[in-house]
Specification:
This protein has 2 domains: 2-70 and 230-399, Alkaline Phosphatase, subunit A (3-Layer(aba) Sandwich), CATH 3.40.720.10; 91-225, no CATH class. The chain is built from 15 helices and 14 strands. It has helices at residues 24-27, 31-37, 56-63, 68-71, 75-82, 126-140, 188-199, 203-210, 233-237, 248-256, 275-287, 299-305, 309-334, 379-384, 395-399; strands at 2-8, 10-12, 41-45, 91-102, 115-118, 145-151, 154-160, 218-225, 241-244, 260-262, 292-297, 338-343, 360-366, 388-389. A hairpin with a 2-residue loop joins β6 (145-151) and β7. It is globular, with a radius of gyration of 21 Å.
Length: 400
């Protein structure tokens, strides 16, 4: 038996007027998802427990069968694990976005009065961001604080014996708003202010401005956490599993669960990612003897954050055509029994530009079992089945 999990990050949404009341999932041309949905067990699931923040670490832990209430330690430590960083019990990891903050008008204003223009600085390249992070390490790093380069705008600060503070604001939740009411206390605020002075005239940012791109002119800290520990996925389920993702967070979960991580060239985490390469990597993992492959695609989520409706639909269509269809065809060709589960981890509605707590649709296709199914894989049809799992960590048991 082979198992494929296809996680379309943030793909769920709300009905949109420009789509005549459809969602991106229902509007997208995705023949393979819809074909599987017509023969699948379908329903909705809540991957984020009530009272927890709807973040991808929490939701993906649940999909992988780990109760977030027990195992979630924040996304930053998972990202640190993916970067190969060693954490001691005294260490706290922080996500360090390089963001774009702007003046609300033409006049220069204090840091506190600036606006969060972009949590990703126009999805800055890793090569550019690496130079910025090295400057932050040179100017702000010391024996206790170390800055590490991640991917694109997503980076890491490890702080030994850090001050106790957890109520940081996620930058993608305050897009277009003044940062005044969302700033952290000292000493974190001073670090962010100093980062602005270091980065605003950095050669990388001056070059980006010349090219019409937003500068990554400030660090923004959030999602602190201590070193995580997860039970082995193999010991839980008796399956050799691989995880394919461009995102350090998801790779970190895999590493902590002793799952194999697979890197795909030019997998970016945005709409321009290497969809075909992810599909080919999944097929290769099955050929190598892996029992379960978990493919995580970040693109719909990033499009939701950026309010890019056309790109969100496009990313769903590319997932269907360039990942799901080739892997499905391969699994058919083997003659071996298989199952496929497709779902988002959480919604990232275009109108909200951030994650929400709403349940998400799922389908579980079992090659040898014909289910009543639904005509289209989307939020409305999945809800209409009346099947609802209030705890996402139970979904893997239903699948396997």
């Amino acid at each position: 038996m082979k198992y494929l999990v296809l996680l379309c990050d943030g793909a769920a949404d709300y009905p949109i007027r420009e789509l005549n009341g459809k969602t991106p999932l229902s509007a997208a041309d995705k023949p393979t998802m819809d074909m599987l949905a017509s023969k699948s067990l379908a329903g909705t699931v809540s991957n984020v427990p009530e009272g927890m923040v709807p973040e991808s670490d929490t939701a993906n832990l649940a999909v992988l069968s780990y109760d977030p209430r027990k195992y979630s330690k924040g996304r930053s430590p998972l990202e640190a694990m993916s970067l190969g960083l060693e954490m001691s019990p005294e260490d706290t990891a922080y996500r360090c976005n390089v963001v774009t903050i702007e003046n609300p008008g033409d006049t220069e204003v204090p840091y506190e009065d600036k606006i969060m223009a972009d949590h990703s600085a126009d999805e800055i390249t890793t090569e550019e961001a690496d130079k910025l992070i090295k400057s932050l390490q040179s100017e702000l790093g010391d024996d206790a604080k170390h800055f590490y380069t991640g991917v694109s705008y997503r980076h890491c600060l490890i702080w030994k014996n850090a001050p106790d503070f957890n109520a940081f604001m996620r930058p993608h939740d305050i897009l277009g708003q003044s940062v005044k009411n969302y700033l952290p206390p000292e000493p974190f605020l001073s670090l962010q202010k100093r980062s602005y002075e270091i980065l605003k005239d950095h050669p990388v940012n001056l070059d980006r401005l010349r090219r019409g791109l937003r500068p990554a002119n400030s660090a923004w800290f959030w999602s602190p956490g201590k070193k995580p520990a997860l039970p082995s996925f193999k010991e839980k389920w008796g399956l050799n599993a691989s995880v394919i993702s461009a995102v350090d967070l998801i790779k970190g979960i895999a590493i902590c669960a002793n799952m194999k991580t697979v890197n795909v060239e030019n997998a970016t985490g945005n709409v321009n990612t290497n969809y075909k390469g992810k599909g080919e990597a999944a097929i290769n993992e099955f050929r190598l003897g892996q029992d379960l492959v978990y493919i995580h695609v970040e693109a719909p989520d990033e499009c939701g954050h950026r309010a890019e409706l056309d790109n969100k639909i496009l990313s769903i269509e590319k997932i269907d055509a360039e990942i799901l269809r080739p892997v499905y065809d391969y699994l058919i060709s083997t003659g071996e029994d298989f199952r496929i589960m497709v779902l988002p981890d959480h919604p990232t509605p275009i109108c909200k530009r951030t994650h929400t707590m709403d349940p998400v649709p799922f389908i579980i296709y079992r090659h040898t079992v014909k289910e009543p199914g639904i005509p289209v894989f989307d939020e409305e049809n999945a809800t209409g089945t009346g099947i609802y799992l209030p705890k996402g960590e139970l979904l893997m048991e239903l699948f396997i």
